[in-house]
Description:
Helix content is 36%, strand content 23%. By secondary structure, it is α/β, with parallel strands linked by helices. Strands 3-2-1-4-5-7-6 form a seven-stranded mixed β-sheet. It is globular, with a radius of gyration of 18 Å.
Amino acid sequence: xxxPRPRIVRALEQFHATHPWDHNAHYHRWILRRLPRRFDxxxxxxxxxxxxxxxxxxxxxxxxxxxxxxxxxxxxxxLTAPTAPVTFSxxxxxxxxxPGPYDVITCVATIHxxxxxxxxxRFRQHLAPGGTLVVVGLYRPQSRSDHLIDAVAVxxxxxxxxxxxxxxxxxxxxxxTAPTRPATTTFADIVRDTRQALPxxxxxxxxxxxxxxxxxxxx
Length: 219
């Protein structure tokens, strides 16, 4: 006999397969509100199909997006106007970041693919004095608070999927076609490592299985 919980899970999976929406793009406008109105240079790490890089270009003199997946970067170039101040390249953020420093560094749903503390140190080294680092990341739920936020996120996720798709079945957006993997680091470990690497950084758990990190490099 099938138990109610697996039936509910299967129903949710089927619903989201036909009403997909990008949880990462949901935070793009939030990221822009943490940044200056104008800045010279930005680096978007794990840029995927380039949605955030193109938004950053509305404020930046130049934006460089990097990703390890050449297929998704090819799609990013197709979607980006030739006149936009945006370039993309296939690079591993821990091995060959483009020369900086940058006034803004963003990293959305990517840092959990890397050794966390090492990645933060790498980002800090390429951030200009007075610059801003913004990370939207994933974490592995562990505490009671983590699981409570997850529980709240489930109905909110369904509501957002319905609103963003206006009830219609839609294909997956290009931004959701890149390879992914689940997070393995807990939020408690993320807080600990961030305090050591980036003193003064602001961390907060968010809906839709995400957390945010904002750090300003003292001028």
